[in-house]
Amino acid sequence: MKFTCNQQTLTKALNTVSKAVSNRTTLPILKGILLEAKANGKLIMTASDLEISIQKETEAYVEEEGSIVVISKLFGDIIRKLPNEEISIESNEENSVLIKTSSSEFTVVSFPVDEFPKIGEKEEIKDDLIFDKEIFKDMVRKTSFAASIDESKGILVGILTEIGREKVSMVALDGFRLALANENMTSAEENKFIISAKIMNEISKIISDDETDDDIRILMGEKKAVFNIGTTEVILRLMEGEFIKYKEIIPKNNDINVIIGKSILLESIERASLLAKEGKNNLIKMTIKNNLLTITSRSEEGNVKEEIIMEKTGDDLEIGFNSKFIIDVLKAIDDEEISMNFKTGTSPCVVKPVEGNSYEYLILPVRIPSM
Amino acid sequence: MKFTCNQQTLTKALNTVSKAVSNRTTLPILKGILLEAKANGKLIMTASDLEISIQKETEAYVEEEGSIVVISKLFGDIIRKLPNEEISIESNEENSVLIKTSSSEFTVVSFPVDEFPKIGEKEEIKDDLIFDKEIFKDMVRKTSFAASIDESKGILVGILTEIGREKVSMVALDGFRLALANENMTSAEENKFIISAKIMNEISKIISDDETDDDIRILMGEKKAVFNIGTTEVILRLMEGEFIKYKEIIPKNNDINVIIGKSILLESIERASLLAKEGKNNLIKMTIKNNLLTITSRSEEGNVKEEIIMEKTGDDLEIGFNSKFIIDVLKAIDDEEISMNFKTGTSPCVVKPVEGNSYEYLILPVRIPSM
Predict the structure, then answer these.
(1) What stretches of A144-196 show up as alpha helix (H) in DSSP?
(2) Which of B69, B78, B106 would you mutate first to test chain A, the one with the most A CBs within 10 A?
(3) Cα–Cα distances in angstroms (integers) from residue A332 to residues A260, A269, A274, A284, B266, in the given order
(4) Cβ contacts (< 8 Å) between A306 and chain B: which residues?
(5) pLDDT at position B371, please?
(6) Which pLDDT score is estimated for A371?
(7) What is the mean pLDDT of chain B?
(8) B241 and B256 part of one domain
(9) Percent of chain A with pLDDT over 90
(10) Contacts of B270 (CB under 8 A, 6+ apart)
């Protein structure tokens, strides 16, 4: 194998594929990146762990076809630190690669291609979907934080995506809060799939790095899906099992309705959290009375009272929350005004836009001890 | 005690004094900040650990004189998160402080002033010195990295400052390298003192934050010194003992002289370091031959050869270095061209400006095993 490629082009491609390199293993081959130089002037780089495989195609001047596996970290560090000029990469006999520029010459170990894991192999395609890039990224940002990060929680680490003919939804929940995002998007096919929030976030990052204007193309198989993002291809394992029937959880008759400024509420809750460390559940109490929201909390170090003017319809209410769960939600919202709907001090609160339903968050309250 | 002060003013002052708050102790009073409101409209904040005391004076509207100790982290977090408006601070009976703005009200624990450590107490002044702010910062940046970070090394954790009538020097060394900075500066008094590099770096940060144009005024006592930086006063313990006779260490007859570009050398050494992990001493080999500097290194993962054109007078040479020590030096230098002077492969290298002597670095070589 022998090819020449520009330093910046190689660096960008390595930054993308290296997201799939496992850092949990000590087996060198699993920390590898597969380089394939093709006669048609294409260089294909691939990295895989057990859940995801990322492949990136770039242009290169290929003098001799071939393929090789290099250590991702070492190879990436070398390429990143070389000056922005043409880099020649050539496989030697005896499992090594020669990396050369005008003044630098590296010889580094390589591994035979047949040891590289084949988890990136594709399946028969059942469905072929198109997804708008910006909508995808925005919906992942609005929902992924609500998924569980505890791998033992099974399906709760995933985001359910439901694609209809006219609209698309994503939903994540961890037992304490639920995040639902809805957007208008036309699709030729209906579909639904569950992918871990971690992988959905990786795909969002790849979308952000992608310089093409193309939509995402998703090829669905039985157990795997292939995401095509510009010249990057992501092959991932779909999560199996039934997602929680989330529509049944969202309360429909929360008739205490508060309209309030998001930033002022976020800042007040962040301040109240400074004295809400007791018992580690970040307890804050909200008192909704007439047109005033009062937020209080206390710890051994002191206590705090925050007051915010708001609009309210319905009864007065006292309710406790883990402040972290409200802060996460408010940080995910772009709107300056939001609607918060309550029923009782022991039933979930729903946070929505003042108009429309582009997001819906459900937050479970926390019982208030005598405070 | 009762005073009102602007949020931004308080935040800036807290950022300065909190540099002296110890985070190693579990005794709340040692994590405290002393607030003193004076009848003349001055608020004085003080924090101390065992080595350094920082005091900052700001303007405040004082309604009632008094003083109190608050928990630095909690008080700082609250003030930083409040909106930019006037904050009222009032001591209550029963060891607590009330912090109030238009919509927030905090009550936090406080401590009696007499429990606050008195290590900031001053001594009789023996000398009164003036030091240019920018020169001080620049010289600390050029030398402090070469001091030892190992507290058990005694005087080697310090920087020796020598103030003459016409020039000033700072020097630090750790047994492997030495950093010497010289500047022209007139002083009415001669003096020398040793202060730990850690504290010298803290003083540099305070200088960077200071908004006045004033020079630093240093009041020297027997065992302590007081640095006046704008409205900030730093009281610190001087290090005792004799500094190493550094002038005797710096070789005078290194007659192999290389003139080379600093950035290109730094980048080459950084690349070579990627394959210099063996035995953890970051060994790189420099071969100086005719007008070519070749840098090589190797590890189990591969090897590298870097070539740089240079100007040389004197013999050819092979010499090994711990790449970290050269990288530290090159990063501290602003010049684009530098002079490196060698004698043999086993004697120290001296790095200097091509003209003048504003810095002088000495780096010990490392023995090259057969490689």
Answers:
(1) none
(2) B106
(3) 16, 15, 21, 20, 43
(4) 103-105
(5) 47
(6) 47
(7) 93
(8) no
(9) 83
(10) A81, B323, B327
- Note whether A275 contacts B109, CB cutoff 8 Å: no
| Residue A121 domain-assigned (yes or no) | no
Structural domain ending residue among the three candidates A55, A85, A115: A115
Residues of chain A with pLDDT under 50: 371
Last residue of a domain, one of A58, A85, A115: A115
Residue B274 has its nearest CB partner, among A77, A105, A268, at A77
Structure tokens at B52: 């350094």
Beta bridge partners of B343: none
* Number of domains, chain B: 3
Greatest C-alpha distance within chain A: 80
A29/B contact by beta carbon, under 8 A? no
| Domain assignment of residue B83, given as a range | 2-115
Three-state SS string across B330-367, please? HHHCCCCEEEEEECCCCCCEEEEECCCCCEEEEECCEC
- Helix, strand, coil percentages (3-state) for chain A, rounded to 5, are 25, 45, 30
Select the more confidently predicted residue: B54 or A211: B54
By the CB < 8 Å criterion, does B83 face chain A? Answer: yes
List the single residue in A105, A109, A275 with the smallest CB-CB distance to B304. A105
Residues A234, A146 share a domain: yes
Task: Please tell me which of the candidates A81, A300, A302 has its beta carbon nearest to residue B271.
Answer: A81
Query: Domain for residue A64, yes or no?
Result: yes
Q: Are residues A162 and A188 located together in one domain of the fold?
A: yes
Count the neighbouring beta carbons within 10 Å of the beta carbon of residue A48: 24
- Which CATH number belongs to the domain containing residue B73 in this structure? 3.10.150.10
B267 touches chain A (CB under 8 A): yes
pLDDT tops 70 at residue B83: yes
How do residues A321-361 score in pLDDT, each as one tens digit? Answer: 999 999 999 999 999 999 999 999 999 999 999 999 999 99
Asked if A283 is an interface residue toward chain B (Cβ–Cβ < 8 A), one would say no
**Which residue is closest to B110 within chain A, CA to CA?**
A301
- Spell out which residues of chain A touch residue B306, defining contact as CB-CB under 8 Å: 103-105
Residues of B in contact with A82 (CB under 8 A): 271
Q: Do B81 and A274 touch (CB under 8 A)?
A: yes
Q: Is the pLDDT reported for residue B24 higher than 80?
A: no
Q: Considering only residues B279 and A371, tell me which one the structure prediction assigns the higher pLDDT.
A: B279
Contacts of B267 in chain A (CB under 8 A): 81, 83
Q: Does B305 touch chain A (CB under 8 A)?
A: yes
pLDDT at B226 over 70: yes
Residue B121: inside a domain: no
Which of A90, A95, A108, A309 to mutate to test binding with chain B, by most B CBs within 10 Å of its CB? Answer: A108
* Nearest-by-Cβ selection for A301 from B71, B82, B83: B71
Please check whether residue A152 lies inside any domain of the structure: yes
Rounded-to-integer distance, Cα B229 and Cα B218, Å? 9
Distances (CA, A) of B302 to A190, B3, B217, B272: 52, 66, 54, 11
B313: β partners: B257
